[in-house]
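so im writing up the methods section and need the Binding-protein-dependent transport systems inner membrane component record in one place, dumping it here so i stop losing it
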Amino acid sequence: MATAAGELPKVAKGKKQEDVGQIPQWKLMVRRFSQSKLSVGALIVLGFMYTIMILSDFIAPYPHDVLDSNNSFAPPTQIVWGPEGPGIYGLKQELDMERFQWIYTPDTSVIYPIRFFVQGHEYSFLGLFPSRLHLFGIEAPPDSNAKIFLWGADKEGRDLFSRILKGSQVSLTLGFFGVFLFVVIGSIVGTASGYFGGALDNLIQRLIELIRSFPDLPLYMALAAAVPLNVPITVRYFMITIVIAVIGWTGLAREVRGKVLAFRSADYTAAAIAAGASHWHVITHHLIPNAMSHIVVVGMLAIPGAIGLETALSFLGLGILPPAVSWGILLRDAQTVQAVVTYPWLLIPVALLIITVLAFNLLGDGVRDAVDPYA
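--- predicted struct ---
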């Protein structure tokens, strides 16, 4: 509709104009992040995986460390529909004398129904209180060889599905905490190096050069091998976390130093110093907040690498050790071609590891684009 000269156009009722300059920065980040469908999908996948990890003891039908020689390398269980709903057949175990392998054939005479929210082995729900309630289970007499192995069993007859769920508690958290620790160290050291400069900067940079002069994987292996073997599982978990952080902080520290050097010469920093602001105030109110977007992106993109590193160390016998379980330990059973060809379900942890790393990379790309002030 045409308007007279000098007259502002009227805004229709019920419509609200939003000034982009008045939108908080975090809302702009969320808006830019939501435009990336792959990153949003990766966030949903990771949210689902971490939810399953938290509830893994409740979802797992069997203990992850109970041996059962009657089900060594048992294949994934076939789900059938019986008169009472979904169920499974029992298994008959026979030894193939030519290949010396166990052969399992279903006993179709009886269908054992699958029940939901059943009582089973005791565990600590969320680490707070004991419980015996499980998501699903089988109603079968103790003398029957009827177990539900959704993803098959390993060479000791342990349920691979339950072991993968239990192993996710290590593989999905150890790398995360390791990255968090090296982000804290790298941010503090890099900020101090760039802000104070002088002899402190020179000392820190020479230390970083010394650490980075060693090949990464051999250095990680040497530090992991130095961890005592007889320490409790929890202590070894945190020591491996420290091993990941001890080396990983160097790259971030140099990047933060470069950011701080640029911010230190900015007008707002000079004005704060001229106004009598303390070093702590300048660092916490002007330097760290401006570098925070870069720190978050680096930390997000480093998580999949840390998860892969823990898996590699555990696979080599230098990370988490039995009786604890992680995805790296589970992959040790699939390190031969014969095992992979004969028992392909042993490679399921590889698929989960690929999905996790890919999801974190896609999420990191979305976060990087969202926090970019020039996007």
